[in-house]
């Protein structure tokens, strides 16, 4: 069989069917701090199994750098657990000495840079996971027209009954009661101009600036950016059954009366 060398002119020719660009991909960064994969699996499931749309098919990079030397957790269990929670592991962030065994699980090695401002909020829930880009002679920069638009506010003007769930990619405004057993999940803020008796989870993509507002606070669960509080913890009397707002400060939920005047 005879082989012919590739034509240099053809290798540089642009294809009408694809473009090769360098760039970053947003991904959640899951930092592992233990090699006990059974405990890690149980912790992940107990934290997120009750909110099946928390990840909403997000991609996740596994950060191994906080593990001690010699610790080698079974990443296969972590990957399967994330799949159960509707998330997909796309790669690992590792120290040099961890790379050999990390690659054995079939995930590529990634570099990581924290988003600006993440450390200022005392947490690092999201990172930009960037694979080493293939060289591109003339990278194409996205135009202003291609810039992502903010998600529109979702308006719900009917009661949310037990067993019902809504998911908003931005803010959500509800004009009627959120009943016990109902669930509101939003990547932005949640506004409830009625009694909030079910579950409300704001900033579910890791936005610590998100807030929850309601005119009557009686929730089963409230959560912002994964920090939650359940009905098992008695609410302060100045917000129980009253107008209130919930915000996050130093990874702690702050419940404050909402002045309506």
TrEMBL record:
Keywords from the UniProt entry: Cell cycle, Cell division, Septation
Domain annotation Septum formation inhibitor MinC N-terminal: ranges: 18-67
Region described as Disordered: spans on this chain: 114-150
Any GO BP: cell morphogenesis
Gene3D superfamilies for the chain: 2.160.20.70, 3.30.70.260
KW Lipid biosynthesis (keyword) present: no
Superkingdom of origin organism: Bacteria
Pfam family, one: MinC_C
Domain Septum formation inhibitor MinC C-terminal: 156-255
Subunit structure: Interacts with MinD and FtsZ.
Function, in words: Cell division inhibitor that blocks the formation of polar Z ring septums. Rapidly oscillates between the poles of the cell to destabilize FtsZ filaments that have formed before they mature into polar Z rings. Prevents FtsZ polymerization.
NCBIfam families: minC
Family, per entry: Belongs to the MinC family.
Record protein name field: Probable septum site-determining protein MinC
Natural source organism: Cupriavidus gilardii J11
Lineage: Bacteria, Pseudomonadati, Pseudomonadota, Betaproteobacteria, Burkholderiales
Gene: minC
């Amino acid at each position: 069989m005879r082989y012919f060398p590739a034509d240099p002119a053809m290798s540089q020719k642009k294809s009408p069917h694809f473009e090769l660009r360098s760039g970053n991909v947003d991904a959640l960064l899951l930092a592992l701090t233990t090699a006990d994969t059974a405990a890690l699996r149980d912790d992940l499931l107990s934290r997120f199994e009750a909110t099946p749309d928390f990840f909403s098919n997000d991609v996740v990079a596994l950060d191994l750098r906080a593990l001690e030397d010699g610790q080698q957790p079974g990443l296969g269990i972590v990957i399967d657990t994330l799949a159960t929670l509707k998330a997909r592991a796309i790669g690992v962030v590792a120290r040099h000495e961890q790379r050999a065994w990390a690659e054995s699980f079939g995930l590529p090695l990634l570099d990581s840079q924290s988003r600006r401002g993440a450390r200022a909020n005392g947490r690092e829930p999201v990172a930009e996971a960037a694979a080493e880009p293939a060289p591109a002679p003339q990278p194409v920069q996205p135009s202003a027209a291609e810039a992502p638009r903010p998600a529109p506010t979702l308006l719900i003007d009917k009661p949310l009954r037990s067993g019902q769930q809504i998911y908003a990619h931005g803010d959500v405004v509800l004009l009627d009661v959120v009943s016990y057993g109902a669930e509101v999940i939003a990547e932005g803020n949640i506004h409830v101009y009625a009694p909030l008796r079910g579950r409300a989870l704001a900033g579910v993509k890791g936005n610590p600036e998100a807030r929850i507002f309601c005119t009557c606070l009686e929730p089963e669960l409230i959560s912002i950016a994964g920090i939650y509080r359940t009905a098992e913890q008695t609410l302060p009397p100045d917000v129980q059954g009253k107008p209130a707002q919930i915000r996050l400060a130093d990874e702690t939920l702050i419940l404050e009366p909402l002045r309506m005047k």
